[in-house]
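RECORD TYPE: inverse folding
INPUT: structure tokens
STRUCTURE:
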């Protein structure tokens, strides 16, 4: 007979809480699931952890879940508008990166790095989606880096070339980001 803490109802409630828990707490819940041989809980924890590109605290997890719910039926353009107007305004660095890519479609990483002027360009490009991930989660394909949701990347000959996706270009322009 299972312990009261791990009754089917308790496991169901624990699974329901996972989306708003910190990544640390989800990992701890998974450990407890393993220790108590609770495959449903383990599977639910694994699924939640797989959705997260970053270590979330509880507040971030809740914000990402809300954003995900709002954009659930949005196309990429509408989700982009919501992400950059309602979830998090673009920083000056993000504006500079986006403006450069828009003005230089197919521009190389080396040229973008010169224009950006810092060594953390890849990280900054990644944060375009990373910081607004709840809005873009369903658009990220398996084995695709997050920023490829907004930026087409052509890789070859030791370089990457960047072009904004056509569906987000008008939105970013309307928002005054490019």
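DESIGNED SEQUENCE:
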């Amino acid at each position: 007979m299972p312990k009261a803490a791990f009754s089917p109802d308790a496991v169901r409630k624990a699974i329901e809480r996972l989306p708003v828990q910190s990544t640390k707490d989800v990992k701890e819940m998974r450990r407890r699931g393993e220790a108590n041989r609770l495959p449903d809980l383990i599977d639910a924890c694994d699924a939640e952890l797989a959705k997260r590109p970053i270590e979330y605290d509880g507040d971030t997890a809740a914000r990402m879940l809300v954003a995900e719910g709002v954009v659930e039926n949005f196309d990429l353009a509408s989700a982009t508008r919501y992400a950059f107007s309602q979830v998090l305004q673009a920083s000056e660095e993000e504006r500079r990166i986006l403006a450069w890519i828009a003005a230089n479609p197919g521009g190389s990483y080396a040229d973008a790095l010169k224009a950006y002027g810092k060594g953390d360009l890849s990280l900054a490009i990644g944060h375009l989606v990373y910081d607004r991930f709840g809005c873009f989660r369903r658009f990220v394909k398996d084995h695709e880096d997050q920023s490829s949701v907004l930026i087409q990347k052509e890789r070859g000959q030791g370089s990457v070339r960047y072009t904004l996706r056509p569906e987000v270009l008008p939105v970013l322009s309307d928002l005054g980001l490019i």
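NOTES: Residues 12 and 52 are 21 Å apart (CA to CA).
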